[in-house]
Design brief:
Number of strands: 9
Largest sheet: 5 strands, antiparallel
Order of helices and strands: HEEEHEEEEEE
Number of helices: 2
Helix content: 10-25%
Structural class: alpha+beta
Shape: globular
């Protein structure tokens, strides 16, 4: 019975490890008023999934650890591309209510772009 329980526990840990992905934060930029933090990051899901460059905006009231956990759990909320390893995403706050996201021209498989998030206008710029 102990061997069966140990085996099942081992399977659970193995499957949990397979679902975890690595987050590489490219850039973290706080809004001028300090209310929000924008993250540009690339998720590497391992051998079975592609690299996914993403942008996530979160309230700065969360601790840095909570912010990173949200990135791991929620993945993206304003920009998401798939099948790409482009990590040349650049973030720049123009003011408290406008964020510029610059990404390489030809970035493939852009699946998600939000123009307004919590009253923040988002401008996307493809750059050579």
């Amino acid at each position: 019975m102990k061997k069966v329980i140990l085996f099942l526990v081992g399977i659970v840990f193995f499957l949990y490890g397979c679902t975890q992905s690595n987050i590489n934060v490219i850039q973290k930029v706080e809004s001028p008023n300090g209310k929000y933090v924008a993250y540009a990051h690339v998720r590497n899901g391992g051998a079975t999934t592609s690299f996914t460059p993403s942008v996530y905006i979160i309230e700065s009231s969360y601790s840095e650890n909570e912010q990173i956990e949200k990135l791991k759990r929620d993945k993206w909320n304003v920009f998401f591309a798939k099948n790409s390893n482009d990590n040349d995403i650049n973030l720049e706050w123009e003011n408290d209510s406008k964020l510029k996201i610059t990404y390489p021209k030809g970035t493939s498989s852009i699946y998600y772009k939000v123009d307004i998030f919590n009253g923040i206008e988002i401008e996307y710029i493809e750059q050579d």
